[in-house]
Specification:
By secondary structure, the chain is mostly helical. It has helices spanning 16-21, 28-52, 56-72, 79-89, 117-132; strands at 94-100, 107-112. Strands 1-2 form a two-stranded antiparallel ribbon. The relative contact order is 0.09.
Length: 159
């Protein structure tokens, strides 16, 4: 994007409108990749906001849009990931899912109502095995606050 907008040093600084303005000048694959990255950067921020606001359905929808973009625009999903996604979004209590890790057979993170974990896992396991013959690994986890600044009462040792 720096060739079109010298002030843009990295793609994360470009807007979707800027990417779209030069669609005709970009190779279609490059355009799709750029489109996905710019949308995904915003989507991650929107998912964080939705989760903080307790808007689970919105977070799930955004997660599913992420998966669809990775599949259609960035082309980094395998058939097995598509089967897992299909199993997840058809399961009881599922709000949505997105890829995690490096893609190409990585894992998916599902947003699931906590009261449906057992039914969700049972459904996903059965549907995935039926469609792929592969035994999935399903790890129920709960979101945590994450990394942050720690305060300490320790004082440095001066020599």
């Amino acid at each position: 994007m720096g060739g079109f907008y010298p002030e843009i040093k990295t793609l994360r600084d470009a807007s979707l409108e800027q990417v779209q303005a030069y669609k005709a000048d970009l190779d279609p694959v490059v355009y799709n990749r750029c489109h996905f990255i710019v949308e995904e950067n915003q989507r991650v921020l929107d998912i964080a906001d939705a989760l903080a606001a307790g808007e689970h359905h919105k977070a799930g929808q955004l997660a599913s849009e992420s998966f669809q973009g990775a599949r259609d625009l960035y082309e980094i999903v395998s058939d097995e990931m598509i089967s897992m996604y299909d199993a997840i979004v058809s399961a009881p209590g599922a709000y949505g899912a997105r890829g995690a890790g490096a893609g190409f057979g990585g894992c998916l993170v599902a947003f699931v109502d906590s009261s449906s974990i057992d039914a969700f896992a049972e459904h996903v396991h059965k549907k995935y095995v039926d469609s792929t013959g592969i035994q999935p690994e399903i790890y129920p986890v709960q979101a945590a606050k994450g990394a942050g600044v720690l305060s300490s009462r320790l004082r440095p040792i001066n020599k």
